[in-house]
Design a protein that fits this description.
The complex is a heterotetramer of chains A (334), B (384), C (303) and D (265). With 334 residues, chain A is an all-alpha fold. Chain A contains twelve helices and two strands. Classes of the chains: A mainly alpha (334), B alpha/beta (384), C mainly alpha (303), D alpha/beta (265).
């Protein structure tokens, strides 16, 4: 009997879900053509924070690793783009995968010796790593990072010749296409054995190890993938602002990413989008309150955790998940 | 359905940002001001806001410009951070009634902002941005009313070693865009004298802004036995450095950059320590001989009870004055007309910080530097 | 040689501030395992309250209590006010979120931290405030090449005194045992008759109060306070607690001292610009070889 | 110690030679030698603190032994990582249940199949044929295992919501999902009522008959040990004190003394 009720429930729900999805999609496409540049840029930075949220979500949401230094990977991506573009003239679009690889390599090298740490000890080490990156950028080693002034004069991404991305609308679509691709990839991972392995590790590391999962490998994989996505965000951010400086990659930026994942819902992709919306749109909407803006921001963060500790849109467990919208047949049905 | 509720929430969030552009008021000439109203430099931002409002009031009292049109200052907060700096510029640029804008404090925030103003062909004048590179990008619409790091560095090299007969120079900066830039330019200016052996730099290092305890660094400095010590950072760290330096027995004269010494510095360090400290600085508001300066300072003091404690807000007020001056004389609010007028026609225009003129790249012409000293009664005077 | 000694004393002074803040921090952290980002701002709030007491009460202080009395008064009033704020923050921001686990509590702590930081900015204004120099005794003592101020000595003594009292309360008294029991296992402890609310009340008064006293001491010693200083002192306290080992109060104390000395070595013998990098590298090395901190007991994973 | 009928003649599956493990000053396991033959149910019994679970954890790679070797199917797996040992064919359960609480029962069992999957990140991202096949394979194995423990109707239920007895069976099913050749169970019957213990014993003996698997058991419940084990090894204070068929062990004076303590001590 349980069998029947479950199937009917999903049909109705599945149907309404897809229509809701397409409404949002069309709104996203129309939006930049109806609003002024300022609101397009606000949506652009919403996209950047969505990408950063998704990247941290792999490490914090899926595997439950307490990472408060994610801005370090974001900075590595941005500075790799800035330095290689200004000093060696490498075109930005080629730098997209390159800065992802650079951040991923950095993550692999830095995290390998410390991946065995648990909980708060891992947290302080990630904070340390983030601060080391930021201070190194300020101190301008080998005259590469331009010190506190940062690197400037980064050019726009271009598909060769005339077609150059420089207007706000083009950037809007660039970031949101990248976000859409990342979501598609992440949902695939969530449904695959890799996603499950991550969740097993989050639930109980020892049991995961005893069930045959190479815990160290999957933790490192999560950090590497998270860093790669953050590197991509860094690349797009750098080319949009045309300059990068250490002020954009502070410990507070890592805290914001942490809040995006927590407020949205750990491991839930729609949740991360809502979290990113809150973190990026809230300061702009409450800009007129200038002095009191941050007071309200702090209060709302507390209230969110009070009423929605699981996040605005927590990940559904027990069969029905956001993932089901993409899978042709229902994921966990027979 | 719960899920639909959440999706609707995303939609609503997007609509909230739908444009409720301020209706373009026909009458007033609107000048944008972008500054760090919140964040670590909130104090600088708020002083700049107050200075611009006072400058606008003074002009409006005299009948405004373009035959009676009032000046309105529209302030946007950029929280002293590059991303919000770009967003603030975007916000001002898309409001059609904003004629020109005074853009911000802090070189690395002005960088992305000025690029956006350039793309939208909007005149923008920086007031607290001394990084040399800002005017080396060949931008048509970017100007600045404050001086540049290299001119202050050159002034230090010409005046200070000779005055104290110092052979061993110590330079310390605070790793901020402004502080490090000035330190590097000073070192470059001293290079010729170092090459022919007249003097040498015995100490060149940074302190971390926001720190409180510098005894360790200062003990290291003391061991290098400097004869003059130049600190290019802000007054908060400068006050701590000098008081702790005197406590551990560093007696060599202290020279600060143009953001190091103000009445806050004297209050924190205490008079007996601040006494005898020098500073390389553009003319301070207090002793600006110009008639416009006295009028401005009196109005500011009447309203806020004290004059601004650093030179940057004064440059913001001057930026507003020069925009109003250009709009009034050219009779138009079009950016191209204003940009050409400012670049070519303006030299010696009356300003609070002295005659205002701009070089080809948009730098402020002829910003004189003086060597100031804190005298026994605690006021900052030009030293002989 | 005495330069090294002087540098060591400098390091220990910074270390003693870190130790005190770390102790106040690990009162909350050790027991509730709550990363209390707001602790740095309790510290800043304390220094501002102390500032107000000294500025407005300066006439009274100089006539009746004299300098040291004035400072004591400032510290006590600051401690009481901030303790009260601590209780309110716990009731408003943390109590409803205990059942939800530790990660949501971190976000709430971040929210509380921003709230307090900006409240200070709204009340006292964004400017740097300066402790009135006239009220602060600065007597220099010179032994050989060594330059020490009386204040430095008083602060070192006071830090160790406070640490001693707290160590005694936690390790030796029955109430201290109750606190340590709650730290290890909240539920079992409450089954054994330990009133969780009393323990929370004690922690959230003593922790912030200790932070506030340190805030006044920092204000006295450096004479300059800003509303954003809480943030990086809070981070230093968290680092010191972890280096010492979680839940180990004496560990937090020594972690703070070691952190101060490490910073001294970094600034003196490498370069001030790379000081923090040096400290974090050492911390990471410590954690690689001793995954539960210097003094944290090695908890074997019970399978 | 004469044993009247020889142990079954199957080859040795698992052997520990001179195994010893020390915690601080305490020698939990002291030069422990044991063999487990193919296709038998071998029980490891002894009073609390005899070092049974420590031997288990050393065999399954959770602890590294100070001395001695663990040989499995002829190759030395001493000190290997737990996940490596699982892939060579030893699967285990825990004394206190360690499931994945907020995941469904089906997902819990699918964890066992993980070490059999060879497709990597890219095939997962681009849904290669091999990856799809392995996913179906994993699902099929998990579904057969969940039917085997008769929890099919609860496959979408969260593990933490299941009854204690079902959670025990879930953990065994997860271990079986790794297609092990040696199943290592740590007090599987603890916390079960007599009916459930009965089902468990029947399940284990059925397993031995149907699948080519060997079972090593830690157990306190004597009628389980006597009921289903082919061979019993007795430990006390880290050392092996006796070994033999259940009946022999039942009457062995040293075993009784170890358990009940002798009256003259």
């Amino acid at each position: 009997m349980i069998e029947e009720t479950k199937r009917i429930g999903m049909e109705r729900f599945f149907g309404s879900y897809q229509s809701m999805f397409f409404i949002t999609l069309t709104m996203f496409i129309i939006y930049p053509f109806v609003v002024s540049d300022y609101y397009i840029d606000v949506a652009f930075f919403f996209g950047i924070y969505a990408l950063l949220g998704l990247s941290l979500n792999i490490v914090l949401g899926e595997v439950g690793l307490f990472d408060l230094g994610h801005a370090g990977f974001y900075a590595i991506g941005a500075y790799t783009t800035a330095i290689l573009n200004t000093k060696f003239g490498v075109p930005i679009l080629i730098l997209l995968p390159l800065s992802a690889a650079a951040a991923a390599l950095f993550a692999y090298l830095v995290c390998s010796p410390i991946i065995h740490l648990r909980g708060d000890y891992l947290c302080i080490v990630t904070i340390g790593m983030g601060e080391i990156v930021r201070i190194a950028l300020i101190n301008n080693p080998f005259n590469l990072t331009g010190g506190p002034n940062g690197v400037y004069g980064i050019d726009f991404p271009s598909f060769g010749g005339p077609f150059v991305i420089d207007s706000s609308i083009e950037y809007y679509f660039l970031i949101w296409i990248v976000v859409a691709l990342s979501i598609y990839g992440l949902i695939r991972l969530q449904n695959s054995h890799i996603g499950r392995a991550w969740n097993y590790i989050r639930e109980d590391e020892v049991a995961a190890g005893a069930s045959g999962i190479d815990v160290r490998h999957y933790k490192l994989l999560a950090f590497v993938l998270g860093a790669a996505l953050a590197g991509v965000a860094g690349n797009i951010y750098a080319s949009k602002l045309m300059c990068v400086s250490p002020e954009s990659f502070t410990f507070w930026e890592s805290c914001l990413m942490f809040c995006i994942v927590l407020i949205g819902g750990m491991g839930s992709i729609p949740g991360v989008l809502i979290g990113a919306a809150f973190i990026s749109l809230f300061p702009e909407i409450f800009r007129p309150f200038a002095m009191y803006r941050m007071l309200i921001f702090g209060t709302v963060m507390i209230l969110m955790m009070m009423f929605r500790p699981g996040g605005a849109w927590p990940r559904k467990r027990g069969g029905i998940g956001f993932a089901s919208i993409f899978a042709k047949k229902d994921v966990t049905d027979d | 359905m719960k899920i639909m509720k959440y999706l609707a929430m995303i939609g609503v969030l997007m609509c909230i940002c739908m444009p409720w552009n301020a209706m373009a008021a026909a009458k007033p000439v609107v000048i944008g001001l972008q500054g760090p109203i919140t964040g670590p430099w909130a104090y600088e931002g708020q002083m700049a806001k107050q200075s611009c409002e006072i400058a606008a009031e003074l002009i409006n009292q005299k009948g405004g410009i373009l035959g009676g049109r009032m000046i309105e200052v529209r302030v946007v907060d950029d929280a002293g951070e590059p991303k919000t700096g770009a967003l603030a510029a975007q916000r001002l640029v898309t409001q059609k009634d904003v004629v020109a804008s005074i853009s911000t404090y802090g070189s690395s925030i002005c960088e992305p902002a000025s690029t956006i103003y350039e793309k939208f062909k909007k005149v923008n004048i920086g007031y607290g941005v001394t990084a040399v590179r800002l005017t080396q990008r060949g931008y048509k619409y970017f100007f600045r009313t404050c001086g540049r790091d290299d001119s202050q560095g050159q002034f230090f090299a010409d005046v200070v070693p000779a005055k104290f007969g110092a052979k061993r120079i110590a330079i310390m900066h605070d790793n901020t865009a402004f502080g490090k830039g000035l330190a590097e330019d000073t070192k470059r200016a001293l290079q010729p004298m170092i090459d022919d052996g007249k003097l040498m730099i015995v100490y060149y290092d940074a302190v971390t802004p926001g720190e409180k305890d510098f005894r360790v660094t200062l003990t290291k400095l003391r061991e290098t036995k400097p004869e003059v010590w130049y600190f290019t950072g802000y007054y908060a760290e400068a006050a701590l450095l000098v008081s702790q330096a005197r406590e551990i027995g560093i007696t060599c004269p202290f020279v600060g950059g143009n953001a190091a010494i103000n009445d806050e510095f004297i209050k924190i360090a205490g008079l007996n320590i601040a006494k005898g400290c020098y500073m390389t600085n553009e003319p301070l508001p207090a002793d600006l001989p110009y008639e416009k300066a006295k009028e401005f300072l009196k109005a500011y003091k009447d309203k806020y009870g004290e004059i601004p404690s650093s030179p940057w807000p004064i440059y913001a007020a001057d930026a507003l004055n020069i925009i109003a001056y250009a709009v009034d004389n050219t009779g138009s609010t079009k950016s191209d007309v204003l940009a050409d007028y400012l670049r070519d026609k303006v030299d010696g225009a009356p300003g609070i910080t002295g005659p205002i003129g701009f070089t080809e790249q948009g730098d402020r012409e002829g910003v004189p530097f003086y060597l100031y000293v804190v005298d026994d009664e605690g006021n900052i005077v030009v030293s002989k | 040689m005495d330069v090294f000694l002087e540098q060591l004393i400098n390091g220990l002074t910074i270390g003693s501030f870190y130790a005190l803040i770390a102790l106040g921090y690990s009162m909350v952290y050790g027991i509730l395992k709550l990363i209390n980002f707001a602790h740095g701002d309790f510290f800043a709030l304390g220094s501002y309250v102390g500032y107000t007491v000294l500025v407005f009460g300066s006439a009274v202080i100089t006539t009746h209590f004299g300098l040291w009395g004035g400072l004591m008064a400032a510290m006590i009033i600051a401690a009481v006010c901030v303790a009260f704020v601590g209780i309110m923050v716990e009731r408003a921001a943390y109590r409803p979120i205990y059942p939800a686990g530790r990660l949501p509590a971190v976000v709430s702590a971040l929210g509380a931290s921003i709230f307090i930081q900006n409240t200070i900015m709204v009340i006292w204004g964004p400017r740097y405030q300066a402790y009135p120099a006239s009220l602060i005794p600065n007597i220099h003592i010179q032994i050989g090449g060594l330059h020490i101020t009386m204040l430095q000595i008083v602060i070192l003594i006071m830090s160790f005194m406070l640490l001693g009292i707290l160590y005694w309360i936690i390790q030796k008294t029955t109430f201290g045992a109750a606190i340590r029991a709650t730290a290890l296992d909240k539920d079992t402890a409450s089954l054994m008759g330990v009133d969780f609310n009393k323990v929370i009340f004690f922690i959230f008064t003593l922790g912030p109060a200790l932070g506030a006293m340190t805030g006044v001491m920092v204000g006295m010693y450096y004479r300059q306070i800003s509303f954003t200083m809480g943030w990086n002192y809070g981070l230093k306290a968290f680092t010191a607690t972890i280096m010492g080992g979680i839940g180990n109060l004496p560990g937090a104390m020594f972690g703070g001292l070691i952190l101060g000395v490490l910073e001294m070595f970094g600034a003196a013998y490498i370069s001030a610009a790379w000081k923090d990098v040096f400290v974090f590298l050492i911390l990471i090395l410590v954690l690689i070889f001793r995954p539960t901190g210097l003094f944290g007991e090695k908890v074997a994973e019970k399978v | 110690m004469t044993d009247f009928n020889p142990r079954n003649a199957q080859p040795v599956v698992l052997e520990t030679r001179n195994l010893s493990k020390v915690f601080g000053g305490l020698t939990a396991v002291n030069a422990f030698d044991a063999q487990v033959h193919k296709g038998e149910i071998c029980s490891l019994i002894g009073p609390n603190g005899a070092g049974k679970t420590t031997v288990f954890n050393t065999v399954t790679g959770i602890y590294n032994p100070e001395k001695g070797h663990v040989i499995f199917n002829g190759n030395d797996i001493t000190g290997h990582k737990p996940h490596h040992i699982v892939s060579t064919g030893i699967a285990r359960t825990f004394q206190n249940i360690r499931l994945f609480p907020t995941m469904t029962c089906l997902e819990n069992i699918m964890a066992g199949q993980h070490c059999r999957i060879s497709s990597g990140l890219w095939s997962a991202l681009f849904k290669s044929a091999r990856q799809k096949h392995e996913e179906r394979e994993t699902r099929a194995v998990a579904e057969s295992r969940i039917k085997q423990i008769r929890l099919w109707d609860y496959r979408h239920e969260l593990a933490k919501n299941m009854a204690y007895g079902s959670q025990r069976m879930l953990e065994i099913a997860r271990a079986l999902a790794t297609n092990p050749s040696l199943l290592v169970l740590d007090e599987p019957s603890s916390g079960l009522n007599p009916k459930e213990t009965e089902d468990l014993m029947e399940f284990l003996t059925g397993l031995i008959r149907k699948e080519d698997i060997t079972i090593l058991l830690i157990e306190h419940d004597m009628n389980v040990v006597m009921g289903i084990s082919d061979w019993v090894i007795v430990m006390d204070e880290g050392k092996k004190i006796a070994e033999g068929h259940p009946e022999q062990i039942y009457h062995n004076p040293r075993v009784i003394e170890a358990y009940l303590g002798s009256n003259d001590r």
